[in-house]
Amino acid sequence: MVAFGRLNKFFALPEYRDLRNVLNDSTKYVHIQNGGFSWTSSKDSFGLSSVNLKIEKGELVAVIGTVGSGKSSLVAAVLGQIPMRKGSVTISGSIAYMSQEAWSINDTIQNNILLGKSLDHRWYKEVVTACELLPDFSQLGDGDKTI
Asked: Ranges for the ABC transporter domain (predicted)?
């Protein structure tokens, strides 16, 4: 009954709107100008303020800092997962990121790499080569078919 009450509260919340500008042009970047982000609308709530960030195409960015400094909130802001309270976020192109927590589906290594996509042998070979997985596969009895 308690879980049902929580679900009702969740479904009663207003629908979240992603306020980021997502563009499709030849210049790839992430740009946050004077961004303000908070998980709740309460003024006492922790959030990020005065965020200014520009990431150009091809840049590799590591977000580091002490515990509780807002690293996860910053990544959530870039991904559009935390409500923006002020400023602007412009995304041109796509974003790839690696979480600090490992995640995999209960399936073969190959299917974890494909994540539901059809097998394109050329692409798959490029990926496993770039990730240097072939030596690992050779150590496994079923190679990339190992669960």
From this structure: 48-98
